[in-house]
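Appendix B. One record, verbatim.
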Amino acid sequence: MSDAQTSRQHFAQGTYALRRHQPELARAHFLAAHTLASPIVSGHALRGMAQAALLEDDEKQALALLEVARRAYNLCEDAENVLNDAPTALATDALEGRATCRVMEVDVHIQAGHFDSAQRALDTAYPLYRTLDGRRSQADLWSATARLSQHHKRWTTAGVAWQKVIRIAEAHNDRHQAVQAWLRLAEVRLRDADLAALEDCIQHAEPIVLDLGEPELTARLHSVRAAWLAQCDEHEAAWDAGLDALYALERVDDHRLLDAIRLRMAGIAQRVRPAECVPLMREVLASQSEHPNKVMLALLANRASELALEQHQFAAALLAARA
């Protein structure tokens, strides 16, 4: 087997490990690919290692790896431009890799709660994509745009961006990215209180989720269905859907998604299982003590404040709000 074939095999196995939330295995495969690499392959491998670092909440390492990956892509681009009079496919691939690194920086900064830095990285990515029309990685750009817009509560912009992701993913037959976007769009429709559009998102996502059979996607589907049922005042059914989401995550090490679902269930519990509300929030707090995240802690404080207000515990509500 040639070095190129071996590298491709390591890439495939590393990407699969990332989807399974196995960062150590992913890192090993990407490192093996890196040792066999040309500059562009090295860039791809370093980018994969940055994703593995991000799964382990090591934002500093992820940013360092992305910076080196960009230099590898630049080296490839510069070499192609010196050796050829006209732009080559390899130079375009390197440019796309560099652009994708910038989009990944957005993810790193969002995860760290540094939203101004995320916006700067996104602003840097946009010009790089002007000559990359039709590329699948355009979906990554619009995905980052949507997530940042959601943080700033720009729901219309987020909805349009997720629809762009869906169209690009479907055009490239990327069912995994398409269903992720349908589920994210459902969350936007939930914020809009557009229940008909929310139900439509669920209906588009469900057959793909069932076909792919991935626990994380299954959990997200049950979670958004729980939110939809709660909006329809079907709180018992919403509680059951939330339990289905937690069950789907039993074999997945994704503490962020788990905490988000627990918080959603705490909101549902305020209506149908008041005694379960505080234990759910305590589980989130315990998880955050090991894996702190500013955004999740803010959501937890908001939920605690709402609960305290409902119980007329105004001092506790004030303390939670200030937290």
